[in-house]
Amino acid sequence: MEIMTSSMLQKVLDEPKQKVSYDPNEQLTVDVDLSLCTDEEMPRMIHIVNRLAKSEAGRETLEIANKAGVKFGFLDAKTNCFGCYFGGDMKYIGLGPMASDDKLVSTLCHESRHAGQAERMKGMPDRDQLNVASIVRYSRAKEADAQAYAVKACKELEMQGDKGPLATFAKFYPPIYKSYEQAFAKEGVLNDKVVSEVFKGWYDQTRTKQNYEEGYIIEPMHDAIKGNFTRMYTFAENVNSKTVVEKVGWTKNGNYLSAENPNFLDEPRFASVGERTKSDAQAFFEIRYRCAGIAPDKSVDALPTNKDAFERRLPEMGQPRGNVGETMSMGNTIERWRNILAQRKLTGTLKKAFAPYKKAEYPDEKPAVDVDLRYCAKKDRPRMIALINRLARSKVGLETLQIAADNGFHFNFIKGENRAFGFADPEHKRIALNPKFTDAKLVGTMCHECRHAGQFMRASNLEENRWDVKTNLIYMRAMEADAQAYAATACEEMFRLGDEAPKQEFYKYYPPIAKGFTQALIKNDAQLGDQLLTDTFKSWYDQQGTKTVYEANYLLEPMQQDLRDIANGKDKEHQMSFDMSISAQKTISEIAWTKHGNYFKDNPEILNGGKYLDVCDYTMQQMRKYFEIRKEMTGKDDAKALEGIPTRADTIPARTKGMKKPVAKKDKVALASFMKRHNQGR
């Protein structure tokens, strides 16, 4: 994201305004997807793309972005950035139309370079998993590289007589341009050394660096405090300087940073953060330790500091945020553009259908089911009611909604950043949906969470700290498999009524279940009912990565917490005891219930083995280690709880750190309700 600060906005406004005429017959000279552009915007975008493609560096970035499936378009005039690359499922590059073509040529190179970075960094942990020092290395290097490549492209254009892009870049980014001037004067040619010095020049922008510190470190910490410490922004994974340099400096002709010391990103010029950033981060880790018993991220302690570039904009750590908005506005930018694209789709100004999500004007209607909306903000109620009424058109959807309503669950939207689609909280009887996802996705999620609400009410025992390991695996997985079987069926019922989008969204997010559901439809001659629910239930277990994630959430993390509780002398009644077992038969009788009887047509005993019970090798290894440490600390040997549990090969990187004996602390840590673990991944 190429941020537009207030001073940069003024420069944009001060630029001479010239009416540019574009050739309506100009054809692209490089293969890129411009289908996000309207007919009016197309000539301008073609002209900017062709202009950038005349440089070798520019053409390289465009071709890589196109190969990655990126689509190009313009943002709206209110966006506070020159351009933005939207990764993940979107893969869009948007340019700010208020800037001049001279500016947008370099911005297009910058954002296309980000698209290539995303492809090269796929194997690395997401930013919300990285420790603070790694976030600093990772996020800054990506921006420095994007600007270095933009300068390279602009210089290549200048050498061809197109001087506007480089001159404009110099006006907006003086520290970076100064590094370029000095390096080019010394080298005399545009070589890797010059590009490397431009990369380093990015780090001389103290204010820009602190903007990113707020957006990528401090804001997520505020979100974690008001959300869930163990699920959001773990600050656990480390990515060293050498790895980052290898990924960001890549070009098709070699790495332009190869002559540098691979650890140079740890030097003070590149690693220092604002004094306030460091103190706020340390305060966050103290709060997190007191509240959740999670050890602090020590990487922040070693970071060098510089004087703050501006006054405090966010509250002190742990204080209410009030009306302070996003400092970087990435979420607002994404929502605004999705809204624009959806509106264009409706009015026919886009030739293809993109971004099904739109901030629609919902009708003033009553909910088809009398659900509790007292805690749903008034401005959000029309959307929530529209989702309820959409789901209620499905028979199984109506059934789940009615059960949730009858048992007193209230409905609202999640506030703040959260990766979950939604969650059901049995303690506070709350069903919450993530408003950042499409209505088509949230309809299925609502069915899933309402089904959980019914499960909670039917469960004979939810004391997870007493469950043995086998019970935990069987019962927890069955809850998820059942909720997805119901969601898939509801989406199919809506599909047959002409509402196709929820099924399409479900299929997009859950391919293994979609495959099993389709096969079950064929097998059952497209008949809905008990056998289809049974077969779909079983297909949930084909998601190897998902099972690994739940093993971390429901077994390894609670075991790590249990060791901390033992070390801190917490009451034994709150410790894990492994003295309760729930059979597969009882699990199915409680989970697969419907108002017409139990739908599960297979033998419940299948849950006692094979893919239904297996854990990945890493999970088994860590559970064995847990019981060894626990025996050492308490004298209790409950390792027999692992007998009969099969293993499978690891398919995704470990989600938790290795089990180790904790050091006793003076402060007793707070253990959140186990059932709140359902607040993830719906």
| Shape field | globular
Percent helix range: 40-55%
For the biggest sheet, the summary is: 4 strands, mixed
> What low-confidence regions span 5 or more consecutive residues with pLDDT below 50?
347-359, 666-682
Number of helices: 23
- The rounded Rg comes to 27 Å
- Number of domain modules: 3
Terminus-to-terminus distance = 29 Å
Strand content: 5-15%
> Within the largest sheet, what's the order of strands?
1-3-4-2
The assembly state of the depicted protein chains is single chain
How many β strands by DSSP? 11
User: What structural class do you assign from the helix and strand content?
Assistant: mainly alpha
- Mean pLDDT rating: 88
How are the SSEs placed, and which strands pair?
Layout: E1 2-3, H1 6-14, H2 42-53, H3 56-67, E2 71-74, E3 81-86, E4 92-95, H4 101-120, H5 132-158, H6 164-172, H7 174-187, H8 192-201, H9 206-226, H10 241-248, H11 268-271, E5 273-274, H12 275-292, E6 305-306, H13 330-347, H14 381-392, H15 395-406, E7 410-413, E8 422-425, E9 430-433, H16 439-458, H17 469-496, H18 501-509, H19 511-523, H20 530-539, H21 544-567, H22 584-591, E10 615-616, H23 617-634, E11 647-648
Parallel strand pairs: 2-4, 5-6, 7-9, 10-11
Antiparallel strand pairs: 1-3, 3-4, 8-9
Helix pairs in contact: 2-4, 3-4, 4-5, 4-6, 5-6, 5-8, 5-9, 5-10, 6-7, 7-8, 9-12, 14-16, 15-16, 16-17, 16-18, 17-18, 17-20, 17-21, 17-22, 18-19, 19-20, 21-23
Describe the structure.
With 682 residues, this protein is mostly helical. It folds into three domains: 2-222 and 235-262, no CATH class; 378-458, Metalloproteases ("zincins"), catalytic domain (Zincin-like); 464-663, no CATH class. The chain has 23 helices and eleven strands. Helix 12 links the parallel strand 5 and strand 6 (305-306). The longest helix is centred in the last third of the chain and has 28 residues, at 469-496.
